[in-house]
Specification:
Chain A: GO terms for molecular function: protein-glutamine glutaminase activity. Chain A: Keywords: Chemotaxis, Hydrolase, Receptor. The complex is a heterodimer of chains A (160) and B (206). Chain A contains 2 helices and 11 strands. Chain A is α+β, with helices and mostly antiparallel strands and 160 residues long. Classes of the chains: A alpha+beta (160), B alpha+beta (206).
Chain lengths: 160, 206
């Protein structure tokens, strides 16, 4: 589902990635949303790189749409944990980077749809870094569920 | 898109490259050549890698086009290549410019303006189908430094709304005999993607 380089897995558009133990997940975001679900006791993390809010009946790729990616992410993580787990979510992305009428609101629509679906699944969102006009690099550690957000020309932000 | 449509678009872009190179030669005062590197439909997840910049930040001068052809045209370059071109355009020694100052940024914005308008005019003239009263209106260019993948991700979003594959045109530049690590990307939005087959049917190679 995603490409791994020495313990770090890059999760690209429409993909879902998983990490455990000392592994990390990384993704570069524009208007897409990086949605991370984490369980500290299991030291297990999953990340969906969500492109659009709704699938409108399309099923492939599952990670591309919020309404297909979130159930898939939960299901895959529960399988890996071997039981149903109380996940917590962190979210980043949803920027509006260049001027364009057609895609101006996609970023925030992605964010809003993710929040709505997470509420339906009863998953709390514990930290976010969304919106704005700049792209982000999101790096996630499975060890402690920490999330680093990097924006070109700015200091690194830790999502607690 | 069919292979024939892609081939027609390639011809259009080659015409656009010629006109853009002529305009740039006048602007730079030196021989400027533009090579159409690729015009292809790629799966969404591969589109973000077209600039081969990985995690590195690049500079972007972006122009949004509205009208018969709508979408984004973006001049992308690394700091070294951009500052080198800016030094040449502002008649300064390259070592004099170590960061993006107002003059260098303005020079690159004007470069993007000249290139994008030359391309868009060439496309518009060739695709000027009857009834295309919508015309063509490019926005003023905007400068930003971004992670390459983040920027391309946003650029292809206009197509991702409707399609699983995205069409990207990518060009490279040469000043006299030196390659510049600058690329011009054209990413039509979903509206133009849907209209292109009709617009291309009116196009005959000249």
């Amino acid at each position: 589902m995603s490409g791994a380089v020495s313990g770090r897995t890059n999760v690209r558009m429409g993909q879902i990635g998983f990490a455990s133990g000392e592994q990390t997940l990384c993704t570069l975001l524009g208007s897409c949303v990086g949605l991370m679900l984490y369980s500290r006791p299991h030291r297990l993390v999953g990340l969906a790189h969500i492109v659009l809010p709704d699938s409108a009946g399309k099923q492939v790729p599952l990670g591309k749409f919020a309404d297909t990616a979130i159930p898939e992410l939960i299901s895959q993580l529960n399988k890996r944990a071997g039981q149903e787990v109380r996940w917590v979510a962190k979210m980043a992305g949803g920027a509006s980077m260049f001027q364009t009428a057609q895609t101006m609101n996609i970023g925030m629509r992605n964010v809003d749809r993710c929040r709505e679906l997470l509420r339906q699944f009863g998953i709390p969102v514990v930290a976010t870094h969304c919106g704005g006009q700049a792209g982000r690099r999101m790096t996630i550690s499975a060890r402690d569920g920490s999330v680093q957000i990097e924006i070109v020309g700015q200091a690194t932000i830790e999502l607690k | 898109m069919t292979e024939q449509e892609i081939s027609q678009l390639q011809t259009l872009f080659q015409q656009g490259s010629k006109k853009a190179a002529e305009a740039m030669s006048v602007w730079c005062g030196r021989a400027f050549r533009i090579h159409l590197d690729a015009l292809r439909c790629v799966p969404l997840e591969e589109a973000t890698q077209v600039l081969h910049a990985g995690d590195d930040p690049l500079c972007f001068c972006s122009v949004a086009a509205e009208g018969v052809i709508s979408g984004q045209m973006v001049l992308a370059f690394d700091d070294v290549s951009g500052l080198k071109l800016a030094a040449l355009l502002t008649d300064r020694a390259a070592e004099q410019i170590v960061a993006w100052d107002e003059l260098s940024t303005a020079a690159m914005l004007e470069t993007a303006n000249i290139l994008c308008c030359a391309y868009l005019n060439a496309l518009f003239e060739a695709l000027d189908a009857p009834g295309s009263a919508a015309g063509l209106m490019p926005s003023p260019p905007r400068f930003s430094r971004e992670y390459a993948e983040s920027a391309v991700e946003f650029l292809v979003m206009g197509q991702a709304l409707e399609f699983d594959q995205v069409l990207i045109a990518c060009t490279r530049f040469m000043i006299e005999d030196s390659f510049l690590n600058c690329s011009l990307l054209f990413v039509p939005d979903s509206q133009t993607m849907a209209a292109l087959p009709g617009l291309l049917s009116a196009f005959t190679e000249s």
